[in-house]
UniProtKB/TrEMBL annotation, chains A, B:
This is Molybdopterin molybdenumtransferase. The keyword Plastid does not apply. Pfam families: MoCF_biosynth (PF00994), MoeA_C (PF03454), MoeA_N (PF03453), PBP_like (PF12727). It catalyses: adenylyl-molybdopterin + molybdate = Mo-molybdopterin + AMP + H(+). Pathway: Cofactor biosynthesis; molybdopterin biosynthesis. It comes from Acetohalobium arabaticum (strain ATCC 49924 / DSM 5501 / Z-7288).
Length: 622, 622
């Protein structure tokens, strides 16, 4: 059972999708159910719906006047008026009133003289149907209200009810079983042991599926055991319309899935030429489609999007929906592997007048990058990448309003997270998206129009930018609470047996450290771990907290967040740098308004070591 | 109680919306509830969510090799290797395995020689953290996962669970009471008496509200009685977050609503300068917002969209969502009333390379036109209309894919409804939208690029168009089943006491009738109702069926649909006319494929009087 699978037939995406949809035909259960129309929003008609009643369904007066049998008005004129008896031959109607039976026209009040309580005199004749609001003005009995396979929304509910339809046959929502496999999996909320992984893929997939109108059925996770998996898949495929097997992240787990499919039914393919998502497979068991999804969270998410969604749509009788797309300019070169269609997550934002697409992390394990993304771009299998400035097509995630996006590039700072929160608390229509990088790089990125603002720490001024103060904060060394190693400053970093973790080169804290080391005349080679870099102070503090490293470099705020001791090395100013050309833009004005709000300042002030005296002030405008 | 209200303060839309949102502040209940993260898709966070665990949460080997305490590797080299005891000082790890406690580095298998079962020799030293996959590569404990007031979707579910969060505080879904008022209202499914109206507004509004994340509470309808309405509104405003009162369509009902609001609380405004939707009002009762919606279905729908949606979003802590918009070219002149912002329903489609917006019926009573529409355009209050060919902004209805739209203009034909159904049955990605007009007008419309195809009956050829045969059908006179009047042909139409209803001028059936009358030498003035026109044969047949009119003009198929007797006057050919320039377009090729399919033909043949021998054949290509 330990042999490794080679992807014998890495299929192109469209081919793989076609195979799946073609193999659906056989087991496509035309299951329908009867529901009340008023509960049918979001459901799909299983048959054409025709109006039973007209709307309006009765003849209504279109004028104030008298309803009459037109025959009795024949020949009436000013010169030769006719008399009619009220309540017998003529009936008073307001506009909208039903026309009494036996009447087939309405004579306008202007053509009527009331002679006494019981009699009117009419001075014109009436044609059949005159001044009567037509039956079926809105909907005519027998007309097609909704073709078969129509997804119903609020206005359709109205139209159907107006047409006298109260119950309809709709497609049954497909039931999709989701089976997570992997011995390493534990349920959310368990206290985690090393090597264990929280099983959240099935929860993500369940909510994807629910959005598309199907019913997810989460099966209990099963460990990497061939027989166990086989029994479960056999049973699930008998019970449900579609079975999804999520393989564990280990190569072995994936083998089980393909073998189970082969031995219970037919394996249609194993391996698709996409990235992430390559190990995806599909088969047919008990006449039901079974899809094996990769275990990496991004692969599982994307695989579900690309393969499960069209299956659900087909089962519901719908055509494949197209994602909303937008054209944007790529902000950096991307390389990719020939022969694989790669899906690169991106953020999208208007920057200095152009819509830009900024790539995010590409790892298959980073669900965070899906959460932060606005959509993805595809690098075709036959390309080895895409060039900066190329116009690319971004397929947007659902309900994304990229017009509210502002991209911030720079050094992570607790001030940033507070800003995100304040924006949402104050109900400001902005979404901030963050890209972590050293200050100088961030300003370069800003100047290259790949960000709307740079979050920088103690950085020199540049042309055509505006610098807005955020806060002054303290940076220093962080150690475990007891400070048992007795660290008092940079002098102690070269202590025998002590381990240190540094921050990335170019970061403000790193520069401060280096200057302190230089002043103290300490050779960095003597510091164990000086070249061991974490990106942010938070990463470093976390390593100290976890007991892996003795000393890290971080801000006082971060030290407090992780309950660590803090030895100050000095102060750093954080600021936002904005393009001069965007300062007057509505979205950036909104952003600065929040920065300058008292609520934000008072939140910021609560962070240990933060001085917000000049928060929101423009430092320089060169 | 009979006095009529004047709209004293017809407010502009934005002003009215602002008043509503400002008056929400007072009664904004910050109600939250705790839910499981895995059930939280679509919900909105009520507080900022920070990661509790990192993901990965353990130190994982990034290479196959041995996990070690790096101190014990210090100084090792090829020249000076060090020996370590397996299971005590060195532990074999596969990529992804947890690094055992006490180890803070992994030495690659390439730098290891296994001496015996218990001992390895290492030829390089290891730095702290080396070849260990960083904790928090995806998510770092303490990081902001979701700001407050964030709407969660599948990937957020994943991110939160990965960050160790299993339960969160979310905004309670606002409960919105919907109270229909009007003595004329009856529930769907009731057998309708003249003057009664099916109460479907509350059902439409309920499904609109559900889409936006609130809980609709449908209250029992109440008749037009001031005290009854007052008591109900008083009670509902105490129980729910927002109360919607749907006034009956009569002017009196609306009075009750405004008086109830005034007497129970404060009327904020009555009357908004929009069309449809003018009589909309709002007030505050028991510190809750109360909105009075107009009774006309389109007004109620639009009023809910414009005023209730932002209230729900505000209650949920979200900013006002912007509809998806698209620019299109208006196909006809539109006039509108100065001082009112008018919302005109439109269809949108690509026609001959350009995206066009084609206005639909504008009446407030026509829910059908909302159902058929793709969105609407706004004519600003300070404009008296919009000119043909103007670029307009269309605000799209949810989930509209206008790229699949084809606009068909022409004479209603049962062949059309069957075609709509066949397209959906065959799973073809097309949506047909129909605009009813006489054949010649339809071909003009086609030539003006305001439709993708004209559905015509026996019409002359034109330049640059292609004509595709649909069917030959019979047209004639329709009478009630017994034919008690003994109608045998056009000669009998001038019978004393007989009433006739005609079709619109320009329609093929009308032209056929006229030619038959001319041949028979009958003066049309002698026919009672000759000038009384219904648009389609179906409308005419319906009037005959309802007993209002004795004889109508329709096809044999329609006669059968309404169970009427039919006296044939002759045959008419129905065909589809397409622009030569669009014949090769993918969407039109798909359409013709369906027209030519055997399934469609066999459906068409089932209609009485239809001959489909040449269905799908190109008649002429001039």
């Amino acid at each position: 059972m330990e042999k490794r699978n080679i992807y014998l037939d890495k299929l192109p995406l469209t081919e793989a999708k076609e195979i799946i949809l073609n193999n659906l035909a056989g087991n496509y259960r035309e299951a329908t159910e009867r529901v009340k129309v008023e509960d049918a929003s979001g459901r799909v008609t299983a048959e054409a719906v025709y109006a039973e009643d007209s709307s309006p369904h009765y003849y209504a007066a279109a004028m104030d006047g008298f309803a009459v049998d037109v025959d009795k008005t024949f020949g009436a004129s000013k010169r030769d008026p006719k008399e009619l008896t009220i309540g017998q031959e003529a009936f008073f109607v307001d506009t909208g009133d039903a026309v009494p039976e036996g009447c087939n026209g309405v004579i306008m009040i202007e053509d009527v003289n009331q002679l006494d309580e019981a009699t009117i005199e009419i001075t014109a004749s009436v044609a059949p149907g005159q001044h009567i609001r037509s039956i079926g003005e809105d909907i005519l009995a027998s007309q097609l209200l909704a073709p078969v396979n129509t997804k119903l929304g609020p206005s359709e509910i109205g139209g159907l009810l107006a047409g006298g339809i109260t119950e309809i046959e709709v497609r049954k929502e497909p039931e999709v079983a989701i089976l997570p496999t992997g011995t390493e999996l534990v349920d959310p909320g368990s206290s985690l042991q090393p090597g264990e992984i929280v099983e959240y893929n099935s929860r993500v997939i369940a909510s994807q599926i629910r959005e598309w109108g199907a019913v997810p059925v989460k099966a209990d996770k099963v460990e990497d055991d061939y027989e166990l998996i086989k029994n479960r898949v056999d049973r699930l495929s008998q019970q449900y319309d579609l079975v999804l097997i999520i393989a564990g992240s280990s190569a072995g787990a994936e083998d089980y899935t393909s073998q189970v499919i082969e031995n219970l039914g037919e394996l249609l393919f194993h391996g698709v030429a996409i990235k992430p998502g390559k190990p995806l497979m599909a088969g047919v068991i008990n006449e039901k489609l079974v899809i094996g999804l990769p275990g990496y969270p991004v692969s599982a998410y994307l695989g579900t999007q690309l393969f499960v969604r069209p299956v659900i749509e087909r089962l519901l009788g719908l055509t494949c929906s197209q994602p909303e797309k937008v054209k944007a300019e790529l902000t950096q070169n991307l390389t990719s592997k020939l022969g694989e269609e790669e899906f690169v997550r991106v953020n999208v934002a208007h920057i200095d007048g152009d819509l830009k697409a900024v790539p995010l992390q590409r790892g298959a394990g980073v669900i965070n990058s899906v959460m932060k993304s606005d959509g993805f771009i595809r690098i075709p299998a036959l390309k080895q990448g895409m060039k900066q400035n190329k116009q690319v097509e971004v397929e947007l995630r659902r309900d994304i309003d990229y017009n509210q996006n502002l991209l911030i590039a720079g050094e992570e700072d607790l001030a940033y997270e507070l800003l995100c929160n304040q924006i949402k608390l104050q109900g400001v229509g902005l979404n901030l998206k963050f890209k972590n990088m050293a200050s100088e790089t961030a300003v370069d990125t800003l100047e290259q129009k790949a960000a709307n603002a740079a979050l920088v720490k103690t950085v020199g001024m540049r042309q055509e930018t505006v610098v807005v103060n955020l806060a002054v904060s303290e940076v220093g060394l962080v150690v475990r609470p007891d400070n048992s190693l007795g660290i008092n400053g940079v002098e102690d970093l070269s202590q025998e047996g002590l381990s240190f973790v540094n921050q990335q080169q170019g970061r403000a804290a790193r520069r401060l450290l280096d200057s302190r080391l230089e002043t103290a005349g300490i050779n960095t080679q003597e510091i164990v771990g000086y070249r061991q870099e974490e990106i942010t102070g938070r990463d470093a503090a976390n390593l100290v907290k976890e007991g892996i490293i003795d000393v890290g470099l971080a801000s006082r705020g971060v030290a407090e967040l992780f309950n660590l001791d803090f030895i100050s090395l000095g102060q750093i100013t954080s600021s936002l740098v904005i393009l001069e050309s965007e300062v007057e833009r509505e979205e950036l004005k909104k952003l600065l308004e929040v920065v300058r709000s008292n609520e934000y300042k008072s939140q910021l002030q609560k962070i240990a070591g933060y001085n917000t005296e000049d928060c929101g002030e423009i430092i320089d405008r060169k």
